[in-house]
């Protein structure tokens, strides 16, 4: 079997480093006119799994690329340091060595994009990932509800950065979105970004809680104006998490922000992305709407845990022609 050379790095012209989004001064004229045509959104997303498909070698390559874009996540009340350290080991070696050898990928180093944990486990994850180059992402600002006092939210961010987190996944105050208080949302996220220092800020919109798609569009734009390096759909704890409809609206806002400012902002669907077929649909969305650069972990992440097991299972089917049980592909 030929090596899947498409995975051996970004094509010419695709830099490994993406400049931080500095943000821009708040301007309500960028936000208030935004409207979303739901019927048009649904027509567009309905075509993602039908107009374009990837099969055989191409599908295996896309799925390996998806692995490198996973924020391997554990955000449970019964998390322990031992579980987090096992998760970090899986992040270092997300695909079984025999499968990588069969795919012709043994000279290549495949890791996940990051490991995402609560603040309590940041230091342990940083220690477990030392020397790997895999960043630790910490959920913050009173995750998942985001209802802690503002000053406490800032201290939580600063504490996670001090413990070594390279990325901070913040939760916006839903009330600001639901009441249309866009300036308050901008000021909040701006202060969160300042507290992050050199750590990248990923703004969670909790799209399942903020109502109509026009709110999603406006909140996306405001968070980017305030300096978010990524915008993220969900905490994974809402009744409805990532959907293709919501994601299309968010990536269209990323495109508009790029056209206005030249800045590149990343996108992270989280919650509900649990199988390889769904991951491929999101990759197609990113490729068609934003271009090849948004298939790299610098600009695209999946917030997921069970997704990795299904991708590894699909890769084993590609190699052997047989499906194996999920329990043969433990996440950690």
User: What string gives the helices and strands in order?
Assistant: HHEHHEHEHEHHEHEHEHEH
- Computed over alpha carbons, the radius of gyration is 19 Å
Q: What are the segments in which pLDDT stays under 50 over at least 5 consecutive residues?
A: 1-15
Please give the order of strands in the largest beta sheet.
Answer: 7-6-5-4-3-2-1-8
CATH architecture: Alpha-Beta Barrel
Commentary on this structure:
- It is a single chain.
- The protein is of the alpha/beta class.
- It has a single domain, classed as Aldolase class I (TIM Barrel, Alpha-Beta Barrel), CATH 3.20.20.
- Helices cover 42% and strands 9% of the residues.
- The chain has helices spanning 38-46, 56-68, 81-92, 97-102, 122-128, 150-162, 174-178, 182-196, 213-225, 244-261, 276-289, 306-320, and strands at 70-73, 114-117, 136-139, 167-171, 200-204, 230-232, 266-268, 302-304.
- It has an 8-stranded parallel β-sheet with strand order 7-6-5-4-3-2-1-8.
- Helix 5 links the parallel strand 2 and strand 3.
- The two termini are 29 Å apart.
- Residues 1-15 have low confidence and may be disordered.
